[in-house]
């Protein structure tokens, strides 16, 4: 089984890439980690509408270090977004267990 790990840094191209992966039957095999400035997407209503629609097929993760650096409150995140202490370490750990990494 092949799992896909992707990271959002900025911009909106991630939506197209995730939709393309879902269209290729990678549902339930995708983890998206937002770090840096991209964690702010998880607080924008227009982004959350799309993210919530995909949450049954995609696991969404936010970097706690990035949230703290931008003074964003983890308590305001919706329940379908998980928080990891360190996004880079999360990416490395998932690669070690076989996730393919795609930077978007």
Q: In words, what does this structure look like?
A:
It is a single chain. With 104 residues, the chain is of the alpha/beta class. The chain is 36% helix and 23% strand. It is built from 4 helices and 5 strands; from the N terminus they run E-H-E-H-E-H-E-H-E. It has helices spanning 13-23, 45-54, 64-69, 87-96, and strands at 4-8, 30-34, 58-63, 81-84, 100-103. A 5-stranded parallel beta sheet has the order 4-3-2-1-5, sandwiched between helices. The longest helix is centred in the first third of the chain and has 11 residues, at 13-23. The radius of gyration is 13 Å and the shape is globular. The model has no long low-confidence stretch (mean pLDDT 86).
- Terminal Cα span: 22 Å
Overall geometry comes to globular
Q: Number of helical segments?
A: 4
Please state the average pLDDT score. 86
Write out the strand line-up for the largest beta sheet, numbering strands in chain order. Answer: 4-3-2-1-5
Structural class of the secondary elements? alpha/beta
Task: Tell me what portion of residues adopts beta-strand conformation.
Answer: 15-25%
Sheet with the most strands? 5 strands, parallel
- The helix/strand order is EHEHEHEHE
State the total count of DSSP E strands.
5
The level of helicity is: 25-40%
Radius of gyration computed on alpha carbons: 13 Å
Low-confidence stretches: none
